[in-house]
Amino acid sequence: MKVCIVGTGYVGLTTATCLAFLGHEVTCLDIDEAKVATLQAGRVPIFEPFLEDLLAEAAGNIRFTSDYAEGLAGAEVVFIAVATPSLPDGMPDLRYLRAAAGSIGTHLDNDFTVVVNKSTVPIGSGNWVDALIRDSFEQRAGATGEFAVASNPEFLREGSAIADTLYPDRVVVGVDNRRGLDVLSRLYRPILDQSFVAPHFVPRPAGMGAVPLVSTDLASAELIKYAANAFLALKISFINEIGQLAEKVGADIKTVARGTGLDDRIGPRFLQPGIGWGGSCFGKDTSALVATAGEYRLDMPIIRAARDVNRRQREIVVDRLLAELRILKGRTIGILGLAFKPHTDDLRDAPALEIISRLIDLGARVKLHDPVAMDRVRREQPDLAPYLCDAAADAVAGADAVVLVTEWPQYLELPWAKLASTMRTPIILDGRYALDHQRMVAAGFRYLAVAGLAPAAADHPA
Length: 462
Ligand code: UGA
Prior knowledge:
The protein is of the alpha/beta class. It is about 45% helix and about 15% strand. It has 18 helices and 13 strands. It has helices at about 10-20, 35-40, 50-60, 70, 95-105, 125-140, 160-165, 180-195, 220-250, 255-260, 280-295, 300-325, 350-360, 375-380, 390-395, 410, 415-420, 435-440; strands at about 1-5, 25-30, 60-65, 75-80, 110-115, 145-150, 170-175, 215, 330-335, 365-370, 400-405, 425-430, 445-450. Strand 9, helix 13 (about 350-360) and strand 10 form a beta-alpha-beta unit. The longest helix is centred in the middle third of the chain and has 32 residues, at about 220-250. It is elongated. The structure holds uridine-5'-diphosphate-glucuronic acid. Uridine-5'-diphosphate-glucuronic acid binds near residues 158, 232, 274 and 340.
């Protein structure tokens, strides 16, 4: 099928590459001409494992352009995957969506086109986009053809975006039009049936069967996206809140999380305690959900609480260092991991940035390291560039304490005993409960966690 994707961020580019890999004929449209040139040269401007490999495999089916007329020529499906950053009032900034919808209306070029909202947009945006497209479509002299607007929310995670797209738990399609549903079912058929040959670098999970299609109306699809992200965010905040109590009663939160998550009804995923969530989605989407509810004079206390708990987790890191070192002024703190989670270089709402800024405010010196995000720090946070260290060992050497903020696998394998001997005081705060407590103690460290680390945990390994 002929597909056009507007916006080449994480979601747009991953969706485009996967659809092209599945055999669709995809045109990616981005108004950023420099980005288009990079993509045309086969390079991916973001760090996402295997995306460049998949793009190379799909190269024959994918094109990049900044020209709407070229992008929309003959397109049966047009995805809108533009950025929707947060405004100060918590609602997403819809200016790019508005611009995209207007241009799409001007350039629609098929008997019947399905325009799909893939960006996470406030509930009701499907109707709004429909109206915007219709306005510009009707202003066109001699415009013919029909269109339908659909919502097809995205559930991919950065760092595993390709696997999440090719092997999803479900596909959600909201469209108030039978023909539109047929088009999208046809588009996703290879994924729904899992009938494609899996790329060797992202193999199909063992035992994977057909993927459920949830077909519904626009508003329900839009709300599913927010409900899913809010639930994941609050699951993490929930275990972090329990962690605070675990600390008081002398329980080990890692074991509590495991013992709780093994209940099938709860499940172990997104129950990892620690510094909490960051990234471009959970913060933005929970705040948009609360703001949307507010338009209806509805409070969402559970979601507000999840946000508060998450903010507190970041503060606890610095409070714990203060309690341990007493004075932070003039101390050196090594920070391992800057991206908001491993396997990405994304710094949006990264807990590390907030922790670093508070440490600097309190007079501490920082030494920073990340395996992939440092170039991005240089570009997006130039103030922090002088503190970047080429190697993790350099960020640790001479420090009064080290904080593991992002659990990159390479940090787990560092020669910790050797590193301990290079520190002024060998204190490690494991913000993700990722390091082995006993091993770190044996390596000579005083081992701290965000909360809920039973004093006896070292004697009673899980
Ligand atoms: C999230 C959702 O997981 C995706 O399903 C969704 O499509 C995406 O947002 C989106 O709306 O675009 P993402 O933000 O890429 O994906 O990353 P996650 O893997 O969900 O991690 C979010 C944050 O939660 C990270 O900072 C991670 O460190 C933290 N986290 C995750 C925990 O603290 N504990 C956990 O148990 C899991």
